[in-house]
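pipeline: protein-struct stage 2 | run 1193 | RDD domain-containing protein
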Amino acid sequence: MNRAGFGIRLGALFIDAVIFGIISWILEMIVLSILGISGKNNLNTGLPVIGAGIIINNLISFVLALIYYVWYPVRSKGQTFGKKLTGIRIQRTDHKELTFWTMFLREMIGKLISTLILFIGYLLALGEEKRTLHDHIAGTEVVYTKQQ
């Protein structure tokens, strides 16, 4: 199959970020209002007060990320909503079935490393192989769903 290049992958990432952000914001507002926690700011600095609200928001974001970026693509043949809309999908380079561990390694560990090194891991998709650092770490590639 034809590997997807940097531009189409960036487009899918943008779509996923918007969808994830909206879902995350809605869930956080619902949970925080049910628990009666508000995002209070320090009156002197204007910065958020670290407390239960921030911890709960981070926990919600992490669980949602596991569902959206790890569990859902395993169940939907390597596609998030952004990848579906752009006609691409993730697959293992050995063509075996995606597993939760493969996607966890790619999305949570690999992307963390790709980001920590100043996003250079993402830029590898510009190369001839069209695979990011997190693709190499997890043994995956992103391909078009139909021949291009």
